[in-house]
Amino acid sequence: MMKSGAVCAKFYRNSSKHLTKVERATSQRDERGSVMKSFKAIFSVAVVLVVAGCSQSRFDDSSYNAGANGVNGNIGAGGISDPASPAYFRETVGDRILFLVDQSTVNPQAQSVLQGQARWLAANPEYTITIEGHADEQGTRDYNLALGARRANAAREYLISLGVDGSRINVVTFGKERPVEICSNESCYSQNRRAVTVLASGLLG
Amino acid sequence: MRHALVAALCSLSLLLPNVGQAQDGPLRIEITDGVIEPLPFAVPDFIATSPAASQYAEQLARVVSQDLVGSGLFREVSKEAYISQYTDFNTPVKFPDWRAINAQALITGEVTLSGNQLTVRFRGYDVFAGKQLDGAGLQLTGTTDGWRRIAHKVADAIYSQITGEGKYFDSRVVFVSESGPKNNRQKRLAVMDYDGENVQYLTNSSSIVLAPRFSPSGDRVLYTSYESGFPQIHVLDIGRVQQRVLSAGNGAMSFAPRFAPDGRRVVYSQSEGGNTDLYSLDIASGATQRLTTSPSIETAPSYSPDGSQIVFESDRSGTPQIYIMSANGGAAKRISSGKGRYGTPVWSPRGDLVAFTKQNAGRFHIGVMRTDGSEERLLTASFLDEGPTWSPNGRVIMFTRETQGPTGRALLYSVDISGRNLKPVRTPAGGSDPAWSPLQE
Question: Could you say which of A100, B134, B227, B266 has the lowest number of CB atoms within 10 Å?
Fold first, then answer.
C-alpha cells in the first residue's frame, strides 16, 4: 500500500500520463475496429485510478508501443477487481521485474513477483505469456539485445522452476529499443532494466 | 542500385596524355596525424555546351567542391578572387592567374546534354607546377537523374590523385531513419548518398528495424526486423526493394548480421535460452554453423577483409571486450586492453584497423586500434556514440550520436580516422545505425 502522500501524488501524475498514452493507443486500435476492446482499456484505467489508488507501483503500456503479441487486458471478464482479469495480473500480481546494471539475476523482490505470476498462471491456464526483456540506454544496441534476452530468459527459468510449463512461455528481447521512462539518469534506467510478462490467449504458435 | 542507368556510368577515357613530371614533385597532400592545412583549390562553373546543359554546369562544380571541402583536406578559393574568367574547356589555362590567388589545384569541366544523357569532361591541374594532374583528365557519361554521381566521381578522381588515398565520394549509406519520442521510436530503413542526398525509404515503420549492413557488391542489405514480433535477420534487394527472412525459422532470435567479403555467407548472433552466440549461414543452402559455444554474450561480429577471421564482442571476461577468432570459430584472442567496455568492432576495409565503440566513466567513444589491440586512439566523446562504419577507402568513420534526456534523439556523424573533421551527416529526420556501401561501380 502507499507509503506517503508524495508517492501517491507521483502515482497520480504517472497515471494521468499513462491515461493519455492509453487513449492514444486506443485511437490506434479504433482504426483497426476494436472499439469495444478500447472501451474496456479505458475502463480498466479508470478503475485503477479510482479503486486501486496508490497501491500499485505503476500502470504501463509498453506493450502497446512495443507492438508485441500480448492482449494487454482486453480479454477476460472484467477490470482489476476480477482476479482472473489481465488487469489484475498486471496491477495486483505485477507484470514486471527489475534488474541491476548489466545483471540478469532474479533478486528476492523479483522472485516474489514471479511467484505471484506463477500462481496466477496456474489458476488461469488458458493464458500463455511472452516475457519481454529490456535494457537501459547505456550500452550498445547489439549488447543490449543480448542482455535483454538474458533477462527474459532468467524470468522464464524462474517461472519454470515454480512449475509453469515452459511451452506456455515465449521470450523476446527488445534491448534498449523500448524504454518506458525516457530521462537519462538512474531513476529512469532502473525502470527500463526490466522483464515484462505479457499475457496472450490461446496456444503459442 | 538506385540509378540503374547510371550504373553504366562508363568509359573512363583519358583526354590528354601525361605531360611529364614537374621538377618540384607532384601536388600531394601527405595525410599524417598532425594538423594539416587544407589545400586551396578553385573549381569554376563547368562550361555548358548548350543552354539546356547550363543547369548542370554550376551544380556539378558545387558538388565537386562540397565533396572536397567536406573531406576536411581541401578548401575552396572564393570565386570573387578569380582573375581569369574560365569560359572555354579547351583553351590553355592561364596558370599565373590561378597562382596569384593561391589556388594550388584547379578543376575545370565541360558538360554536354544529349536527351537525358549527360557527358562531363573534366581536368585537374597542379597550378604551381603548371601541368595537368596525372589520371585526372577524364570523361564521364550518365543519365541526368544521376548527375550528382558524376560530380562525386569527378571529386573522387581529384581527391584520390592529390591525397594518394582511395576514393569514397561515390558511395551510399544505408541507415535507420528515426522519428517519434524516445519511448515510441518509429524506425524505417533508408538509403542515401554518402552526403545525405537522394534519400530513399526501404521499409515502413510498422515494425522495429535495426542495424542494416551492405553486401560487398552493394546490391543487398542485411538487417534485423521485428516484423514477426521477434528479432530476425532479413535480407533486402535494394534495386527491387524486396525483402525476405533469412534466419532459420525455429523461433530463435537473431540479430547483428554482417556479410562475409565473398557475399555468400553471413555471420550473426542468435539467442537461445538466454545465451547469445555467433553463427554463420551459407545464404544459398541455408546451412548454419555455430561458431561459439560460450555461456557468455557473443555478438557484433565483423569479418576481416580476406574473410579468414572474425572480430567480435564478448563479455566472457566479465565485461564486454573485443576478440578475434578464425572465421570457422575456435579459440579467440582478446585484443582490447584499456579501461572500460568495448563493443561493435568493425574491421577496416584496408585490414589494418578495427573501429569500435568504447564506454568508460559515463562517456561513449568511437575509436580505432590495430588488429593486435595496439595503438588505441579515441576519435570522439559524447553522452552516447556507437556503431562505427568505414568509408570505402578506410579514411572516414560514420556513427550514431544520441543526445541525452527525455528529448534525446539520434543523428549520424562522421569523423576522419585522425579524429579531425567531426561533423553531422544530414538526414531528413533522426538517424542511427549507418552502414557505408562499397564504392559504386
Answer: A100
- Chain B residues with CB-CB distance to A184 below 8 A: 383, 404-406, 408
Contact B313 A68 (CB under 8 A): no
> Where is average pLDDT lowest: A67-76, B182-191, B360-369?
A67-76
Q: Do B387 and A141 lie within an 8 Å CB cutoff?
A: yes
CA dist B253 → A172, A173, B343 (Å) = 7, 8, 20
Is the pLDDT at A19 greater than 90? The verdict is no
The pTM for the full model equals: 0.84
Task: Calculate mean pLDDT across residues B320-347.
Answer: 97
Report whether pLDDT(A4) > 50: no
Q: What order do you get walking across the sheet with B209-214 strand by strand?
A: B209-214, B220-225, B232-237, B242-245
Is residue B243 within 8 Å of B234, Cβ to Cβ?
yes
List residues bridging with A175 in a β-sheet. Answer: A134
Q: What confidence tens digit (pLDDT) does each residue in A126-137 have?
A: 999 999 999 999
Please check whether residue B344 is in contact with residue B299, taking contact to mean a CB–CB distance below 8 angstroms: no
The Cα–Cα gap between B74 and B147 comes to 22
Return d(Cα B276, Cα B296) in angstroms, integer. 7
Copy the grid coordinates of residue A22. 492509453
Residues of chain B with Cβ-Cβ distance to A182 below 8 Å are 181-183, 405-406, 408
Interface check A147 vs B, CB under 8 A: yes
CA distance B370 to A9: 55
Identify the band that residue A150 occupies on the pLDDT scale cut at 50, 70 and 90: very high
In b/e form, how buried is each residue of B395-420, taking b as 16+ CB within 10 angstroms?
A: bbbbbbbbeeeeebbbbbbbbbbbbe
Indicate if the pLDDT at residue B165 is higher than 50.
yes
CA separation (Å) from B161 to A174, B12, B237?
47, 15, 34
Rounded CA-CA distance A115/A110 in Å is 9
Please say if the pLDDT value at position B219 is more than 70.
yes
What residues of B are in contact with residue A178 (Cβ under 8 Å)?
A: 183
